[in-house]
Specification:
Elements (H helix, E strand, L loop, with lengths): L19 H9 L3 E3 L10 E7 L9 H11 L3 E7 L4 E7 L8 E3 L2 E10 L1 H10 L11 H9 L5 E3 L17 E5 L11 E5 L6 E7 L5 H14 L4 E3 L2 E5 L11 H12 L7 E5 L4 H14 L5 E9 L2 H5 L9 H5 L19 E7 L8 E6 L7 E6 L1
Antiparallel strand pairs: 1-2, 2-4, 3-4, 5-6, 6-10, 7-8, 8-9, 11-12, 12-17, 13-17, 14-15, 15-16
């Protein structure tokens, strides 16, 4: 089977929320390119690409797709097996800046100047990047095929990858695309003294999270966890644990950041307890009806507190207009809500799921009761 070489025509300034290097790649190989509709589009950039087998080679569509899936440094969304070829749909959700190329959700920039290891680290640091991490072996081939006239570069790797190198003569890791000077095959890993030996510099950075990438993570998250919700207001995920109300409004936000940190870096995003809107409640109701989730209540961070004066009155005074204290859209409340009793207590709110084909609504909820909460993630 013919190997696809992942070099692009050029690296162009990224505009209109597109990764232009991916667009160049798609058009170079005759693919059908579809750009995302602006930075807030959750679809990402897509490319429909035909894989043709070599002549005189028996065509196995499943093997063909597996080969492509292993090769492509992008998301492989699906494949259509035809009689003589495979049509693959690939895409990117993140966006790399001008002059950088994207592989596996990371951005790479090549500086074709020879530098010592320390000089290379400082060069990348100035670009808010690091020397590249070999997080998968196939990356070395992508760099080798794309970056021309590059003989050796500095890199980083985990200890198991470099624990048994033939050429181990220093503390710094180098990739020799041309292994001849070291009597090694091309694309070899070796360790050298980076204060004496020099190499070209490849920098790696993680691009900011986009709405498209949030949606991609939502789909992956749903494979192993509770269903999540994606709206124009961001990504909403629920907690596993049930929580009681805390007077400090930052506690729920801090808890949500801890939940989200487990599966995405907290870079370029804002994480907080969910802001309740009609769109969110409608989506939540649809998920519960579809997935038949048994949960009845979700606690929110919307809170009511009787004033200090009212608390100290000998005779408790019923709040005549509690809805203003909650600061919630009146249309989001259930019938006869919000209803508070005359005990000068504080109250949270909860989302109550309907047993019928209706959207969830808000109800007054005792601070002492436990329930899961939803966390909201928005792109900065």
């Amino acid at each position: 089977m013919k190997t696809i070489h992942w070099f692009l025509l050029s690296l162009i300034t990224c505009v209109n929320g597109q990764d232009k290097s991916f667009e160049s790649f798609c058009k170079f190989y005759g693919g059908k390119y579809q750009a995302r509709n602006g930075i807030k589009d959750i679809r990402g950039d897509h490319c429909e690409l035909a894989l043709q087998p070599e002549r005189n080679v028996e065509y196995d569509p499943h093997e063909h797709h597996h080969h492509f899936d292993q090769q492509a440094p992008y998301h492989v969304h699906g494949a259509n097996y035809l009689t003589s070829k495979t049509i693959c749909n690939i895409g990117v959700t993140l966006i790399c800046p001008d002059g950088w190329i994207q592989y596996f959700g990371r951005c790479y920039f090549m500086e074709k100047r020879m530098m010592s290891f320390d000089e290379a680290e400082k060069f990348c640091e100035a670009k808010k990047a690091t020397l590249p991490m070999i997080h998968r072996e196939v990356l070395i081939r992508y760099w080798y095929e794309y970056f021309t006239n590059v003989h050796q570069i500095w890199a980083r790797s985990t200890e198991p990858t470099v624990s048994d190198l033939i050429h181990d003569k220093g503390p710094h890791l180098m990739i020799a695309f041309d292994g001849y000077p070291y009597s090694l095959p091309p694309k070899s890993l070796l360790k050298v003294d980076g204060s004496i030996v020099k190499a070209m510099v490849l920098c790696e950075s993680t691009p900011p999270i986009t709405m498209a990438h949030l949606d991609y993570l939502r789909k992956r998250y749903f494979e192993i966890y509770y269903p999540s919700i994606m709206t124009e207001e961001g990504l909403f995920i629920r907690t596993t644990s049930k929580r009681v109300f805390n007077q400090d409004s930052k506690v729920d936000d801090d808890y949500c950041r801890g939940v989200v940190k487990a599966f995405m870096p907290l870079i370029g995003i804002t994480v907080k307890s969910a802001k309740i809107t009609a769109d969110f409640l409608r989506n939540l109701g649809e998920i519960h009806r579809k997935e038949k989730i048994p949960e009845v209540f979700y606690r929110t961070s919307v809170h009511y507190s009787g004033g200090e004066k009212e608390r100290k009155q000998p005779k408790c005074q019923v709040d005549q207009n509690p809805i203003k204290r909650f600061n919630v859209d009146p249309g989001l409340w259930n019938d006869q809500q919000p209803e508070v009793v005359c005990d000068a207590a504080t109250y949270s709110t909860a989302i109550r799921l309907s047993e019928y084909e209706q959207d969830p609504k808000l109800e007054v909820f005792s601070d002492a009761r436990y329930a899961p909460i939803y966390c909201q993630i928005t792109v900065d």
